[in-house]
Design goal:
Layout (H helix, E strand, L loop, with lengths): L4 E7 L17 E2 L2 E2 H10 L6 E6 L4 H8 L5 E4 L4 H13 L7 E7 L7 H10 L5 E7 L6 E3 L2 E4 L7 E10 H12 L9 H8 L6 E4 L10 H14 L1
Parallel strand pairs: 1-4, 1-6, 4-5, 7-11
Antiparallel strand pairs: 2-3, 6-10, 7-10, 8-9
Helix pairs in contact: 3-5, 5-6
């Protein structure tokens, strides 16, 4: 079946502990707007996106509604972990959308500079693939170590750095997360990894990302994002 509807889910449910701010980092300001506003506006203005959902901590839902309430159809309460937040969003989507013909794009609110080109690439990927992740080729040589000693140098041409959005047919990602939730020994860090582990017969394709699509993790990242934003203007 062809995907006929695409829903973007902006994941802002985390506390941003590594950033060290007094508030969740998704509410920090970049170029006069919060990170959440940058992300939601990007998807709300994308021609291929039919609906935008936002996941936020319950304590900040009212503030988020003031910021982007007119651009999202719902603000969903975040979970304790990222997988919990994703599953909360999936539960909402499954009650309201046909899983076989709905595509979902999960995007971290900490990546405020996602481009229209990337979003369009994800929407296009959903027309032919059940799962795809945004990524950029790795420019550095990566080394694998054991007890502080280099044990392997994988070929650089096979290595990519993962970004978001990560996009899936709703039925596929819902099934993968259902299996993951039943496995107490697995703590996924991203949704492509969930599909790879629990639905190994489902290929996960690559959508070309961008070096500008950075993730705000530490205070210095915000300064880099400010410079990138100024360069785009």
């Amino acid at each position: 079946m062809t995907v006929t509807r695409a829903v973007a889910v902006v994941l802002g449910g985390g506390a941003g502990n590594r950033f060290g701010a007094a508030m969740p980092k998704q509410l920090l300001t970049l170029g006069g707007k919060t990170l959440v506003e940058h992300c939601v506006t990007a998807f709300a203005s994308a021609p291929g996106i039919d609906e935008v959902l936002l996941v936020m901590p319950a304590a900040y839902a009212a503030e988020a509604k003031k910021l982007v309430g007119d651009q999202v159809s719902a603000i969903i309460e975040g979970g304790v972990t990222r997988p919990d937040s994703v599953r909360n969003a999936l539960a909402y989507l499954l009650l309201r959308n046909p899983p076989e013909t709905t595509g979902v794009l999960f995007h971290d609110a900490a990546r405020p500079l996602v481009s229209q080109q990337i979003i369009a690439g994800c929407v296009t990927a959903l027309q032919t693939h059940d799962a795809a992740g945004t990524a950029v080729p790795c420019s550095d040589t990566i080394i694998v170590t054991t007890d502080g000693v280099v044990s392997h140098v994988p070929p650089r041409e096979t290595l990519f750095r993962a970004q978001t959005p990560q996009c899936f047919r709703l039925s596929v990602i819902a099934k993968a997360h259902k299996l993951a939730a039943a496995d107490p020994d697995f703590t996924p860090t991203d949704d492509c990894g969930v599909v790879l582990r629990y639905l190994p017969g489902t290929p996960v394709h690559i959508v070309q990302g961008s070096e500008s699509n950075i993730k705000i993790t530490y205070p210095g990242d915000l300064a880099i994002a400010e410079a990138l934003l100024r360069a785009e203007r």
